[in-house]
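Most newcomers find our protein records easier to grasp once they have seen one. Read left to right, the backbone structure tokens trace the chain's path through space. Once this layout is familiar, the rest of the handout is easier to follow. The record below serves as our worked example for the rest of this section:


***
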Amino acid sequence: MLIIEKVYKRHQKLWDGCYAMIFGEENAEKFNTQKGMADWNRKLYQENRNFMELRVRELLQQNIDSVLAESLKGFTTIIDKHKPKAKISIVFAPLQGLSIGGCDQYMFALDLMDTEHDLSRVVTEGLPHEINHLAYEPTRVNDPDRYTALLNTIDEGLSCYYTYKYFDGELTRNRAVENMTEDEWAWYMQHEKEIFTKAKPYLFVSSETQTPYSCSCGMHRGEKLFEDAPKTICYWLGFRIIEFYEKNNGAGSWKEVYELPVRDVLVKSGYEAYINSL
């Protein structure tokens, strides 16, 4: 009963609405049923006790409360109209794939079982990115293109761009976009025209439709547009669209993106005209 009350019901929206969905039907019952939740929770700590206690100590060393407070303060200082309202869950999950993030603007998870990403970077650089998602996505309720790949592209690009602005020159563009290396960024720049040309036919297709253009980091919907792309294409493409928006509309104009339909963002960015000029 303790597992059900303290772990499942206290974070039920996250388990039912996110974990049960992203890990497929074969794993859904682990998260959206009381028996499934109880089964893995009874074993996870026993089997991973030393590791889990180490991860908690690592998190405490990051001063997570202070970092989170500073991240929220920074967001409301830069973007004063929109405030995130999500419930934050710090979890140990039996399946990895959601290091930090959520499935809608009301849920947010930091999974301490994940070791693929450096915890210090996830906390300091990942939090601003995810906070931006939580604030931006509620503004898309009336966007005519809210279910398209373009919206996902702008959503991810804006979060990367906000993170770049949040650190005010202390974080390079490439690092703000999925922690890219300079060489990985160079790959995208070298293929810029081809990337947009190939992606364009899929931008207004439903984000749930399997196409070669994927906008899902780690769990791809459909095939990759470029098999040799070093990171998720839509994060970089979205960043470039927002970057061009500010370049063509004046310093600070990128904040207008929170208010505009994504189709207008693309047009007003002038990015397609730039691509056509190459």
User: Anything to note?
Assistant: The two ends are 63 Å apart (CA to CA). Residues 2-140 form one domain. Confidence is low (pLDDT under 50) at residues 217-222.
